[in-house]
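Lab notebook, page 48
Experiment: co-folding of the full assembly
Goal: obtain a model of how the components sit together before planning crosslinking
Operator: M.T.
Materials (sequences as entered):
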Amino acid sequence: MNGLLEVSGLTRRFGGILAVDSVSFAVAPGEILGIIGPNGSGKSTLFNCILGQLRPTAGRVRFAGREVTGLRPSLLSRLGIGRTFQLLQIFPKLKVRENLLAAGQEHRGSMLSRLFGAPDAGLAGAVEEMLAFFRLAHLAETPAGSLSYGQQKLLDIAMAFMAGPRLVFLDEPAGGVNPAMLAELEARLRALNRERGATFVLIEHNMEFVMGLCDRVLVMAEGRVIAEGTPREVRADARVIEAYLGG
Amino acid sequence: MTGRRLAAVAAGLLVAALLLLLPLTLRPYGLYLMSLWAVLTIAAMGLNLTLGYAGQVSLAQGAFVGIGAYAAALLTTAGWPLGAGLLLGVGLGLLVGWLLGYPALRVQHHYLAFVTLGANTLVFLVLRNEDWLTGGVYGIAAIPRPTVLGYPTDHPLAFYYFCLGVLLLVGLGLGLLLRSPWGRAFEALRENPVRAESLGIDTRRYTLLAFAIGSAVGSLAGAIYAPLVQYIDPSPFALGLSLALLLMVVVGGAGRFFGPGLGAAIAVLLPEWLRFSEGLYLILYAVLVILVLVFLPSGLVGLADRLSARARGEGR
Amino acid sequence: MSNVLQLLLAGLATGAIYALVAAGFALLWQTSRAINFAQGEFVMLPAFFVLAGTEWLGLPFWVAALLGLLLALLLLGLLFKRVIIDPLLPQGVLPVVIATIAVGILLKESVKEFYSAEAQPFPALTPGGNIDVLGAVLSLQDVAVLAVAGLAILAMQLFLGRTRLGRMMQATAQNPEVAEILGIPTRRMVLYTFLLNAALVTLASILISPVYLAKFDNGETLGLVAFIAAIVGGFNQVRGAIAGGFLVGVVDNFGAAYVSSDYRTGILLLLLIAVILLRPEGLWGRAEERTV
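Observation: model returned without errors.
Model output:
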């Protein structure tokens, strides 16, 4: 395998329970990979193990040819891996612009240049671009906490893309988003993928959204990968139907 | 927007005039109070960085004031200039503050409050018990006032202007720091540490920095406190000062740049207005803190913001 | 040898009082996630209610003690919960920490202002005198403290573990959401914990004041020591906090005798910092699920 991300034999045990059981997969550059599965099938734990929130019990993660297993989230971010969380995670008291600046500032220069250098040199352009891309420009000076839920969701995703990551993990991006906003979100994500070659891995419960957006889908049940393929193949797979109905 | 700016400039000029001209009319005791206000404001500004901006509880700020005060007192009574004492105090503050930050990496809010509270008591015990260095309960007397740029500051008015100058420099420095990406990282750490970490912000390093810088500013305040009072013993640096500084920050408005100045002003002036009883002052102050917490979570500066916004019909 | 036994028994006697205070502290934390930084002042105050009863109103001691308990239940239980904790808890842990610090200052300064700044003698439960236990000389007061506090702890454990009400309180403490689903009136249970805490600090106050005298600033050390006991023992378990209380009482006594009386609080603080860094859930606590 020589994907952008390679996960092999990843395992996480909580006491006697195997939350993630020897999961392996790879993500190719430019791909959109969906991970689906019933509640409690280990999707979020898998994310947390890959992204440095939890230490995996066994297994390895390689990113762009480099071993990154167990690295701290801030380091992974600076290597080019972005993420969003299942619940909205923004800085509510900071302005929208400041949220985006905070999301990009650690990816260039040194600690000292961040203190003594011209503040935010080179970031302003990227911020304007993100504001325009996610249609938040008119809200740039508003505290993020007073945006609508849908707008906060867009900001949340914009922050993950601020530093130009090569790979982004999205945890239920469609959760709680109304249908009109959902179409907008799907269009934005698709554009990021086409225009910027961004690679995504996303967990999602909204099947329509997953099947429409993803190139490939991974199905998890009880901590294992039980099926893998194009949306069409997965939809027809008897094991998948059983996992959802039989659980 | 220009109306708001105008009001801010007018308020600024008024405060500047008050700080520069009022002292000319004051007797030594009034000058002492204003100098004390400047010192407490510096110490509270340091705590405001740690607590208000970076969201890390510290109940040890008073101990850092003590560390700075003893560093300055020991060096200046040994014949060194105050500048050396300042450097030593700030250096020690940075070092001990950085170390104090380590528990913050492992434990959350309430535990952190206890650890820092314990650290404060430990520093106090060292100041009280290590007679060979600190003079124990007898303290250090005859701390000289510095000569600044060739001007002696023995006169209370001269020393007050020295304190004010230091306050302005510290305020400027902290203002620039808070507007830099570091300041934003501190706020991100306060608002949402998990998200900050996922965006590449090294939350461990910034937590340690927040403790180190905030504590060092506290020590800086201590290094000016020593020549202000010219005699120090361990008693002012017990837990009480840390709690008082914490309350100043909260009453003024945690995370507000001018909050500490206002909180310190109330802390210095309230006992003067209520001269008949020191105890009653603390009672009222405690009640004020509770009222502010329950009704004005953003402090008095936050209240002023809201009132001025409402006055112009921008209230939400 | 008898010296060691003597230090041990005396340490256990003070430790029993710390255990009462630490247990109340742990209960509050469990049921409402409220850290009470005024817990030390809570212990200081009821002694003054009793003194006010005997000195100002001329009541007999036991009547005054009952009055003190009643006032404590009202002020330190009900009012404290309604006025301070309930409005501030939704704002997070930090405002509660700061507000209870302010409450501590308020109580301390009020006693100093309205009662006295001097240490007040407080009637002892027993006559003076010593008894001999296997060669160790132990004051009757210590024996009484150990007995009363020990019984109180035992009674509390039986109440929490064996009675219906106690179990409902425990369930609320361990998992409020599940308790709610099981139909337990959790809001009332939380109130009962605040009342139980008020009763515990009143008992501690009456036991400790004859030894240390009643003084407005007693709360500083008492609070700190009780916090250390709760954290060292593990304050997500009442049992841990109680064990921590005894341990801290003993360590304090031995530390003062054998290491350094100048640094006796310092020894406890080092113990505290070590436990927080190495075993943050406490020596007898159960680890809380960390969600980072």
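Interpretation: The CA atoms of residues 142 and 220 of chain A lie 40 Å apart.
Next step: discuss with group before ordering constructs.
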